[in-house]
Specification:
Layout (H helix, E strand, L loop, with lengths): L1 H20 L7 E6 L8 E5 L2 E5 L6 H17 L6 E2 L1 E3 L5 H4 L2 H7 L1 E2 L2 E3 L8 H14 L3 E3 L2 H5 L23 E6 L11 H4 L8 E6 L2 E5 L5 H11 L9 E3 L11 H7 L3 E4 L17 H4 L4 H10 L3 E13 L2 E9 L1 E3 H4 L2 E6 L4 E5 L2
Parallel strand pairs: 3-5, 4-6, 5-7, 7-8, 11-12, 12-13, 13-16
Antiparallel strand pairs: 1-2, 1-17, 2-3, 9-10, 10-11, 14-15, 17-18
């Protein structure tokens, strides 16, 4: 009887701790917050001793405000982090990846900044402004190329104190960059492909004990091919959680790539299917792009082993302005269907997923 009472007390304590922690990373866990910013990208990585933001995109001013609100709520819970982002990475300077960068910089302290060093896209004004702020405030800034990432030949990418400023005392994450801008045009690329900012996206890998995450920005098939040519025969691309490239576009995912990655969870950041349907139809919108692609969802369904708690019926794109209804059974999630998505990972490789917060 005493043993049962002790067991019940232990369980009660664990439940209270779980409620009080409210998803806060313990020394043995980290959380990836895939924030719903519409047809855009923003992911917050939370560690026991710090935080990193990968992209600060937003579909419009409403979503930009939501991103800032989300971060304020995060720091209100994590008062120990003092409203500080240890690193902000902008994978490339398209506006859907840096639209809210100025707002983030004005509301929170940023101690390190990384981009791809190519301020020529639709979000160049935001990227250049952040680079100037970094220079004025003495914030360590760097940009990285594909050539730098593969220079060592060890198939592990590149890391340093700017790329990985997190230094936790118990489980310390390993953060590396696998690719960035291409300094030299690959022989198989056309000039138009070389001018495509998407293919110069910074690619980030995060390893936390036995847990792992991969972020490829909007890397398209040309960049993906280069990535596979170099890393495909190694285990560098093999991770458990994949942030699906280019908002679930058909031009950013292949069967060979998914075989190399072998993800347990796939997260798609995009807008609700009819966003931009109009009239008039918005050119740069979820509806116009046809995101996420039905083909990509099928490829992911064939690759991801586990299932969602319950299947979900969603709109899948079959082309520009063309959608069908499909059922998603596997562990494939999207900000369009699930709202904000948080994956908490332990250093033992155990994952817990929360949606809609």
């Amino acid at each position: 009887m005493k043993l049962n009472l002790r067991l019940l007390c232990t369980i009660a304590f664990m439940l209270v701790f779980a409620i009080k922690s409210n998803g806060q990373s313990t020394p043995n866990t980290m959380s990836a917050h895939f924030i719903n910013v519409g047809q855009a990208d923003a992911t917050l990585l939370e560690f026991q001793c710090g935080a990193i933001l990968i992209d600060a995109g937003a579909a419009d001013t409403v979503y930009a405000a939501k991103l800032v609100t989300y971060l304020k709520a995060f720091f209100a819970r994590r008062t120990d982090l003092n409203n500080t982002l240890d690193l902000v990475i902008i994978t490339h300077d398209h506006i859907d990846h840096d639209f809210a960068l100025d707002r983030v910089a004005k509301n929170f302290t940023i101690t390190h900044f990384i981009d791809n060093g190519m301020p020529t896209g639709s979000g160049s004004e935001n990227q250049v402004a952040m680079e100037k702020m970094a220079q004025q405030k003495g914030i360590p800034y760097a940009s990285y190329s594909y050539e730098q990432a593969i220079a060592s030949g060890d198939h592990k990418g590149i890391t340093n104190n700017i790329i990985d400023p997190i230094n936790c005392s118990v489980t310390n994450p390993q953060i590396s960059i696998l690719s960035g801008r291409f300094q030299t045009k690959p022989a198989s690329w056309t000039s138009e492909e070389f001018d495509n900012q998407n293919d110069h996206s910074v690619v980030i890998k995060v390893v936390f004990g036995k847990s792992s995450f991969l972020f490829t920005g909007d890397l398209q098939l040309e960049g993906l091919t280069q990535l596979m040519n170099y890393y495909g025969t190694s285990t560098a691309l093999n991770v458990d959680v994949l942030r699906v490239g280019h908002h679930g576009s058909i031009n950013a995912t292949t069967a060979a790539y998914l075989k190399a990655v072998s993800p347990k969870y796939a997260i798609i950041s995009c807008g609700i299917w009819n966003t931009g349907q109009g009239p008039p139809i918005e050119t740069f919108s979820t509806y116009s792009y046809g995101h996420p692609s039905s083909t990509v969802i099928s490829l992911l369904s064939a690759s991801v082993p586990g299932n969602r708690p319950t299947p979900i019926t969603v709109h899948e794109g079959t082309g520009s302005k063309k959608f069908i209804l499909g059922k998603v059974v596997k562990n494939i999630y999207s900000t369009a269907w699930d709202g904000n998505i948080t994956i908490t990972a332990s250093d033992a490789g155990v994952y817990t997923l929360a949606r809609g917060k």
